[in-house]
Amino acid sequence: MKDLKTVYLTHGPEFSLPKPEPCVMAMGFFDGVHVAHQQVILEAKNIARKRKIKLAVMTFFPHPREVLNLGKEKMNYLTPLEVKLDRFSKLGVDIVYVIKFDLVFAELSPKEFIDTYVTGLGVKHAVAGFDFTYGQKGKGTMKTMSTDGEGKFLVTVISKLDYKGQKISSTFIRNLLSHGEVNEIASYLGDYYETRGKVVSHYHSRIGKRFYIDVAVHPYYTLPANGIYEVEMHSEGHVYHGSALVYSNKIKLSFDGTIKNQTYETVKLKWIRSLDIERVQLQQI
Q1: What is the pTM of this model?
Q2: pLDDT for 128-183, tens place per residue?
Q3: How far apart are the first and last CA of the chain?
Q4: Which stretch of DSSP H or E encloses residue 123?
Q5: Which of 25, 74, 120, 216 has the most beta carbons within 10 angstroms of its beta carbon?
Q6: Which CATH fold topology does 184-284 show?
Q7: Where does the FAD synthetase domain start and stop, copy by copy (predicted)?
Q8: Is the Cβ–Cβ distance between 47 and 127 less than 8 Å?
């Protein structure tokens, strides 16, 4: 995994751009970095290799919807920014530009956005999904990007990617989570859905020889619907298979036997599938 250069940008009166670096840029919010997002980034990577220039990603934080609704609508994120950055690095990205999405930035016209954040950053080729928009009220689209760029860079549009007739999108994955259908997510995400959290407490049950862990999920993750799920817990190089009870945005993990190391503070969970409550109760008696 290569070293990733991360540049944080905030638009404002004293704003100044870093020195432009010739690059091919993949553009989008990329929440979850699902398979359609990966297609955008990998296409940009192929172009960058051919042109022998750097591969960059432009992303934003917080989510535009959260800002434009003035905080009235809670955004259910799939992945925190630091996890996205890790996934970008694994995909071979050289530079990530993280733009603070606020009301000042949202007022930029499409042309101002392109002049500042695309041409101004040395982009030679821009790659984005067919539904990417930019500039005030999203007036800029992939159909207008070449015109706004005045031919100073090339543009590649990635078409809609479907699986079983369903458009692969972060919104659809959030919908699967809200219905507890975690077993369906891997086909759209490219892997099992993953969350990370802080261990609040752990204890053994005197009945049934089971080990329990209470976990508080880290910010900027969305938990599946209340219910019981098969999970993998990853901690300090070990993988444990067990179940997770989700309730009131909390997690209670349950495992057979003993966990080898009980000094950990954080754990990573992979959500495999939902479980039938009655069957789980019978197995634990």
Answers
A1: 0.91
A2: 999 999 999 999 999 999 999 999 999 999 999 999 899 999 999 999 999 999 99
A3: 45
A4: strand 123-129
A5: 25
A6: Elongation Factor Tu (Ef-tu); domain 3 (2.40.30)
A7: 19-171
A8: yes
